[in-house]
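How a chain folds remains the central question behind the approach discussed here. For one protein, we set the task of working out the structure tokens from the amino acid sequence alone. The sequence in question and its structure tokens are set out directly beneath this paragraph.

_____
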Amino acid sequence: MSSEDLSKLNYPVPREGPEVPYKNETQVIPVFRGTPLAIGATLIHNIGFIQSHFWRNAGFDVIRQISHLHDYAGRYDPTVIPVDNNAPSDVPTPIVQKRQGDKYYYTSADYHALYTSGELTPLAVVETLLPLVRRDVTPAGKHSTAFLESQVDTIRAAAQASTERYKNGQPLGPLDGVPVAIKDEVHITGYKRTLGTKLDFKHGTDATSWCVQQWQDAGAIVIGKTTMHELGLDTTNNNPNFGTPRNPHNKNYYCGGSSGGSGYAVGAGLVPIALGADGGGSIRIPSSFCGIWGLKTTHGRVSGAPSLSLAPSVGVLGPMASSVDDLALAYRVMANPASASQDAISSQFPKPLPLAADRKRNKRIGIVRDWIDRAEAPVRAVFDSALEHYRQQGYEIIDITIPYLPEGQRAHVLTIMAEIASGVDASQIRHLSAPNKVLVSMGMWQITAQDLLASQRLRNLIMKHVAHLFKTHPGLMIFTPTTPIPGWHIDGGEVELSRGLSDGKTSVRNMEYVWLSNFTGCPSISCPAGYAKDSGVPIGVMAMSDWGTEEDLIDFARDGEGHLDLRVPSGDDSVWEDVIGNAKEAQAA
């Protein structure tokens, strides 16, 4: 049965939205870094009329002025739950292909095959990785900037147990012994949870999030927690608190965020699979800038731990991987529904099942032309090439419209700011980095109930319209670039990295496409599709599909996989770690 045919609880009643012309302008917002940023942040945090001035100039009041909102109730949670009472008890394990040559990424299959043959052990891999990722040793590991913390004793114990299972011919499955990395935002027993800040956000909880537990139960070894943009409130992963991992393909560019540490870990070859999260709002930009695949899943909203997200009405998790095969494997394992006692929402979701290869597929791509036209030329060239590839794969290209896209992006940002501000005590703001002193102060003291309610009405309007598109065009993939810019250059150098960056114009541009999936709760996938010629930074494309159709997105990614000869980072400004090669040498010695 196609995922399109599942019944779905809380599905928006399909309703075509109003016809309104697309009108968007690139915002003129000053860039602050270094001392001016620190001074400005202090003034904005402490002086109300300065806050009000910046808030008015940001144009958020346009949301409440939308006349059509009177016809829509507010939608405060975008979760839609597929219902399939006929799901089998066992989920088929996807077949993961090994890498095809030295210039390609390793996959979980490479680890599994070497462990099975005895040529390599999980313990040897762990002992190779730990010196590279630990920040609690002197000197710190070469890649430690991407990692917040690694619990060494726990990691070694897991690796030893996995090594014994392989020795006895009893591995738990294809993930057994495979190293993975987890974003700081996610709860793991024994680990800190800082959300990229100097604060403690464990809130007395020392449990492991359900989705991570599923990976661990399958034998995967969590090599550590990865750094993130502070509070997830921007898309660079610039973090003065713990350091900023640079793009593995070009050290002069950001990885993207807010899951940049996880994106770096996969992009630099340290792990084949990592977990990102969107509790702060930014999604799959790391997979775009780092040249890896990323899936944003609606399964259980955060796959079994919705209460652990900082911003639950926009917060979701999703795997990142170096191949589509590993993305599918990681998703199907982590999205196994929890029991009702563990999580009431996740327990209602069906098990993720691959779709029949011989099923009838509706191959349709929807394009909002005016929206796509805002991508910069290098991105647009890659997008057009990918679109032509899909056309040759038999996809029908359909022109569609979505009302209030610029206003919807503002509503998304406003909602994130309000929710994060509600999770931070006023006394904690002074401990935040300068850019977030500004944003959290705005969210705490400038957003009114009228603003927030109007944003949720607009969410409902857009969700109903998107549902109308999916019902009118079954199988529709709403296709965009992942981001309209071909990478984010670190213009301010070390000053920018040590003191932070406030560049609202680029932040808004960077989120111009990805916000829609977050705000509506629809699943989406980001696929590497090309490289920027001047920098070598990867460029991604993104597809968003109907609620509950993650497996359709995986099939869509497979259709596009042959478009790009994806390669590991190379060149003077790049970083690539041959973990398996180094582990084999160490074990042989």
